[in-house]
Amino acid sequence: MKVAVNEQQLRAEIKKWKEEGLTIGLCPTMGFLHEGHASLMAASAASCDRTVASVFVNPTQFGPNEDLESYPRDFEADCRLLESKGVDLVFHPEPSDMYEDDFCTYVDVDVLSKTLCGESRPIHFRGVCTVITKFLNLVKPDRIFFGKKDAQQLAVVRRMVRDLNFDVEVVGCPIVREPDGLAKSSRNTYLNDKERQAALILYKSICLGIELVEAGERNSEVLKAGMLDKLAEEPMADVEYVEVVDGSSMQPVETFKEGDLVAMAVRIGTTRLIDNFTAGENDIKAG
Ligand code: PAF
After folding, report:
1. Is the C-beta atom of 152 inside 6 A of ligand 1?
2. How far apart are CA 31 and CA 11, in angstroms?
3. In 3D, which of 30, 51, 32 has the Cα closest to residue 42?
4. How far apart are alpha carbons 84 and 112 in whole angstroms?
C-alpha cells in the first residue's frame, strides 16, 4: 500500500492506473477508522481494480465551535486497517496542501444542505462538497463510496454529482453497528462509560420507528412523536432533531413513503450523534 501526502504523488499513481485502463474506487474518510469505514473499502475492492482511501480531517466542514482540533486521529492504526482491507493507495495530505492561504472557491449545494444537520451546521455541507470535488478532480474515480449513517451527506453528494455532471457513480453502503446497536462513528470515542450506555437510546428510538412503520404507521408526526417519546426516556439525551424527510430532497414530508428518511441528531453530554433509517431498506440489524 502506498501513501501519497501531496497532489503530485497522488496524481502520479492515478496516471499510471488510468494508462493501464484500471477502474478506481475512492473511499473518502477523516481517519480514526472503524468497521463502518472498512465496509466502504470492502465494497470498493469488490467492484474496482484499485482502491484509494483519503484520510483527511477536512477543516472547511467544521464550524468555529466544533471539534476540529479534538477530532480523533491515529494515522498508523488507520494504515494497518486500510492495508488489511486491500486499499492500494492512501491520500493523506496536510490542510495546507489542500487549501492555499487565499483559497476562496466553494461548492455549495442549496436546499438539501439547509435542513436536518444543516440547521445547526450551516457551513458543514459546503465544506464536504468542496473537499469531495477536490478529491474527484484529483483521483477521477469510477466509483465513490459513502456510509449511509451520514444519509444527508450522501444525498447532498448525489445531488452535487448530478447537478455538476461529475462522471462518477456514488455508492451508499449500509450503516454498520456495534453489537448492541449503536451506529459506528469515530465520535463514539468521546463517550465515557455512562454516556456510551445512554447513547443506546438512539438505536432504541430508531428500532421503535421501524416497528411503527412495519405496523403500518405512515403519519410523520405520529412517527416523530413516538420516537421523541422514546428518546425522552434517557435523561442524558438532548435531542437536536428527529425529522421525516424525502430521501432525495431532504425536505420534510407529511406521509412517510418508500425511499423517505427518518433522521435524528442527539447530543449525549457534549457528543453529537446521528442515526437514521430509510423506508424499504432493511439494514438495521446490529452486530
Ligand atoms: O464523512 C466523512 O468522514 C467526511 O464528511 C468526508 C466525506 C470524508 C469529507 O471530509
Report:
1. no
2. 21
3. 51
4. 36
Q: 249: how many CB neighbours lie within 10 A of its CB? A: 13
Q: What are the CA-CA distances from residue 7 to residues 56, 82, 101, 133, 136 (Å)? A: 13, 20, 16, 14, 12
**Ligand 1: distance of its center to the CA of 210 in Å?**
27
pLDDT at 247: 97
- Per-residue confidence (pLDDT) for residue 8, from 0 to 100: 98
Q: Is 93 in the pocket of ligand 1 (CB under 6 A)?
A: no
Is the pLDDT at 283 greater than 70? The verdict is: no
Q: 10 Å Cβ neighbour count for 107?
A: 17
Q: Is 90 exposed, middle or buried (0-12, 13-18, 19+ CB in 10 A)?
A: buried
Which residues, including other chains, have CB under 8 Å from residue 199's CB and lie 6 or more apart? 182, 188, 191, 268, 271, 273
Instruction: Report residue 282's pLDDT band, with 50, 70 and 90 as the boundaries.
Output: low
Q: Cell match 449525549: residue?
A: 268
Cβ 128 under 6 angstroms from ligand 1: yes
Q: Helices (H) and strands (E) in the chain — how many of each?
A: 10, 9
Q: Identify the DSSP state of 76.
A: H
Instruction: Give nearest CA residue, ligand 1 atom 5.
Output: 128
